Amino acid sequence: MDKFTTLTGVAAPLPIVNIDTDMIIPKQFLKTIERTGLGKGLFFEQRFNEDGSEKPEFILNQPAYRHAQILVAGDNFGCGSSREHAPWALLDFGIRCVISTGFGDIFYNNCFKNGILPIRVSPEDLSKLMDDASRGSNATLTVDLESQTIKGPDGGSVSFDVDGFRKHCLLNGLDDIGLTLQKEGNITAHETKLAATQPWA
């Protein structure tokens, strides 16, 4: 998993509440267990017409936001079914951070396990950040996980809270497998001892 330390990137405003995981990545894209290639299905029904052409009004189809790395979204982002494909699709598109006033619990947990930083802020701070994100090509935010701050294009700053353990994992690029491999020496020693004392096991 890639480390998350400081991210400076274009932030796309998505002022819609209750964006569920089916809206993030529709069910027809759930046939794969691969984490790559899902970016094409991100917000598929909002991004594309039935004939496959783009909907120019959707924010991620607009030139200033095509390479957005941050989403500033309405409340309860990622609610609905517990599909891990949702953070996979965001990450494959290039989104590394989602800012909202609230998240679906399972989606929130899955983000941390896949290298995405979900940030909860107050309604007042979200309004400021949504305004910053509405500035087109100037909609650049800097998210600093170490200091737990978000800086806007005008130099204003918003602080956020994050669980210490999850922060440690993101800063060091540790998913569940990475955390286990930190104990590789102990695991190997145990397996060696077990093989010597219980060869039948």
Describe the structure.
This protein has 201 residues and is of the alpha/beta class. It has one domain (6-197): Aconitase, domain 4 (Alpha-Beta Barrel). The protein contains eight helices and seven strands. The chain has a seven-stranded mixed sheet. Helix 3 links the parallel strand 2 (70-73) and strand 3 (97-100). The two termini are 34 Å apart.
Task: Briefly characterize the structure.
This protein has 201 residues and is of the alpha/beta class. Helix content is 33%, strand content 16%.
Strand order of the largest sheet: 4-3-2-1-5-6-7
State the CATH superfamily name. Answer: Aconitase, domain 4
| Beta-strand residue percentage | 15-25%
User: The CATH topology is what?
Assistant: Aconitase, domain 4
Q: What's the CATH architecture?
A: Alpha-Beta Barrel
Regions with pLDDT < 50 over 5+ consecutive residues? none
Number of strands: 7
Shape: globular
Question: What tags apply to this protein structure?
Answer:
globular; seven-stranded mixed β-sheet; 33% helix; 7 strands; alpha/beta; 201 residues; single chain; Aconitase, domain 4
Give the arrangement of secondary structure elements:
Layout (H helix, E strand, L loop, with lengths): L5 E9 L6 H4 L19 H4 L22 E4 L11 H9 L3 E4 L4 H9 L3 E4 L2 H11 L6 E5 L4 E3 L5 E3 L4 H9 L3 H6 L2 H14 L4
Parallel strand pairs: 1-2, 2-3, 3-4
Antiparallel strand pairs: 1-5, 5-6, 6-7
